[in-house]
């Protein structure tokens, strides 16, 4: 099939209207009623409206012809105030989708931007337009802003993003392999680790530093923990995570800022699985979103559950909230490591510790006793069931704490015997008071999901030696949510379910 991209002509406007409408019906009708699509279409895309756009000196139209038939259309708009070129529209007739025509239109738009001396191009995509989001992300776009977009009486979430010209080349340079489903993700990660040890010196040094790691078990009141002396984690343990600090430093998870030798596995088109250069475990991975978007679990919890199943038995997935352990609270990411390394994994299998709270839609909710900190377990044999239960818990937590922001939580996820199990650690503080003391009185412990799981990381040897059971118990009490608050959350879950 021969494809030609050319500037639009007035005689193209009837065909362009048809392309827009048929594309909308094909793409948007599953989440926007047709009556609202029609209202927006007749308001903004009647021929008189298109004629005004045609005459606008800051608007450029591109038409794609496939074997001499008009198959697609793109509209470009140059915003003088922002000095940005926007791809305001890019639509194809449904029968021509998936044939590289959209990519050809996008490349023509990029050439237009380059001719204007611009080094980036901007786009807007509805959140529920998953195929569109995947298309643009694969093309190298990063989405940095979310806002409402209204058609008729329906308002949906809309993402604004940009692409640095040449970004798709950068993605290709950073991708070791891809994973879009099926079996073998964990094996692929191990191959990545072996390759990166050979080619990336930072990772090689980080893995070699694990030889200096020492561990010792410590018995506390009713539970045990393991202390790990790991000097390689000093930077992570002392990371400053205030808004001001975030704004002043380069995000080390953004694609543009990854070290030269670092590569990863492109996971389901949206994430990059990377080897952690400052590991806690011999096999320690970071799963980072391609876009620079805030650390938050509410939207991607379904992806977190999918990751658990894709890694499979023998692995544990970790999430640190933006205010309680995430070293990059401004960039969405998870961690993966071999299971069996954290004491809590064994402890929550002891039935005497589990107190059943509720069973709804085949999801079980437990509270774990006698661990010195609050732990809630959600489990089920269907990911969607566990997802709903988690959202109930999160909404109840917000209700009790009177906040619209994400409450402080850490999560560990296990997938075993075809069951999903989430261990949730509700928090009230990020760091204990001893972290902020001066001089020798300071103890450098900064609890995240790993620490809340019973493996406390101490980057300083003196802390590793002197920490005792009473201090560990005190740290857990201080940073964990109070018992009475957790009880209120459980009551709120019941109330929300009743409504």
Summarize the structure in words:
- It is a single chain.
- The protein has 499 residues and is α+β, with helices and mostly antiparallel strands.
- It folds into two domains: 3-165, Aminopeptidase (3-Layer(aba) Sandwich), CATH 3.40.630; 197-498, ATP adenylyltransferase (HIT family, subunit A), CATH 3.30.428.70.
- Helix content is 35%, strand content 29%.
- It has 17 helices and 21 strands.
- It has helices at 13-28, 34-44, 47-55, 101-115, 130-138, 167-174, 185-199, 201-209, 234-237, 243-248, 301-311, 343-347, 383-401, 449-452, 461-466, 469-479, 483-498, and strands spanning 3-7, 59-66, 69-79, 84-92, 120-126, 142-151, 154-164, 175-179, 214-219, 224-229, 264-267, 271-275, 285-289, 315-320, 333-338, 354-360, 363-368, 375-380, 409-416, 419-426, 455-458.
- The strands form three sheets. An eleven-stranded mixed beta sheet has the order 8-11-12-13-15-14-19-20-18-17-16.
- A hairpin with a 6-residue loop joins strand 17 and strand 18.
- Helix 1 (13-28) packs antiparallel against helix 2 (34-44), helix 11 crosses helix 13 and helix 13 (383-401) packs across helix 17 (483-498).
- The radius of gyration is 26 Å and the shape is elongated.
- The termini are far apart.
- The model has no long low-confidence stretch (mean pLDDT 92).
């Amino acid at each position: 099939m021969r494809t030609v991209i050319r500037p639009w002509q007035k005689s193209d406007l009837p065909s362009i209207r048809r392309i827009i409408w048929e594309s909308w019906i094909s793409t948007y009708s599953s989440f926007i009623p047709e009556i609202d699509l029609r209202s927006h279409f007749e308001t903004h895309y009647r021929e008189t409206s298109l004629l005004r756009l045609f005459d606008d000196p800051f608007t450029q139209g591109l038409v794609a012809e496939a074997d001499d038939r008009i198959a697609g259309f793109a509209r470009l708009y140059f915003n003088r105030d922002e000095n940005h070129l926007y791809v305001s529209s890019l639509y194809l007739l449904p029968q021509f989708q998936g044939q590289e025509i959209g990519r050809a239109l996008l490349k023509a738009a990029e050439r237009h931007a380059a001719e204007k001396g611009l080094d980036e191009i901007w786009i807007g995509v509805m959140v529920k337009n998953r195929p569109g989001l995947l298309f643009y992300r694969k093309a190298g776009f990063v989405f940095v802003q979310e806002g409402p977009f209204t058609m008729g009486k329906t308002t949906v979430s809309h993402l604004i993003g940009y692409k640095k010209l040449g970004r798709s080349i950068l993605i290709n340079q950073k991708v070791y392999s891809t994973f879009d489903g099926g079996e073998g993700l964990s094996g692929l990660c191990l191959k990545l680790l072996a390759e990166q040890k050979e080619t990336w010196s930072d990772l090689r040094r980080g893995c070699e530093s694990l030889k200096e790691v020492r561990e010792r078990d410590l018995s506390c009141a009713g539970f045990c923990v393991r202390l790990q002396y790991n000097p390689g984690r000093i930077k992570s343990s002392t990371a400053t995570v205030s808004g001001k600090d975030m704004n002043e430093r380069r995000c080390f998870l953004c694609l543009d800022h990854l070290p030269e030798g670092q590569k990863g596995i492109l996971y389901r088109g949206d994430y990059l699985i990377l080897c952690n250069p400052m590991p806690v475990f011999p096999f320690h991975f970071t799963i980072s979103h391609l876009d620079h978007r805030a650390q938050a679990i509410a939207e991607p919890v379904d992806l977190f559950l999918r990751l658990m199943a894709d890694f499979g038995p023998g692995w544990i997935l970790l999430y640190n909230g933006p205010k309680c352990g995430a070293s990059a609270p401004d960039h969405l990411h998870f961690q993966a490591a071999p299971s069996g390394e954290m004491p809590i994994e064994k402890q929550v299998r002891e039935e005497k510790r589990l107190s059943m709270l509720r069973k709804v839609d085949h999801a079980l909710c437990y509270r774990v006793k006698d661990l010195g900190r609050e732990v809630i377990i959600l489990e089920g044999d269907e990911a969607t069931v566990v997802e709903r239960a988690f959202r109930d818990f999160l909404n109840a937590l917000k209700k009790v704490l009177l906040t619209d922001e994400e409450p402080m939580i850490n999560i560990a996820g296990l997938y075993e015997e075809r069951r999903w199990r989430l261990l949730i650690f509700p928090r009230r503080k990020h760091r204990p008071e001893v972290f902020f003391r001066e001089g020798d009185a300071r103890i450098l412990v900064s609890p995240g999901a790993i620490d809340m799981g019973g493996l406390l990381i101490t980057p300083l040897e003196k802390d590793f030696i002197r920490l005792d059971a009473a201090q560990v118990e005190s740290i857990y009490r201080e940073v964990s949510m109070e018992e009475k608050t957790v009880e209120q959350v459980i009551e709120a879950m019941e109330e929300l379910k009743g409504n």
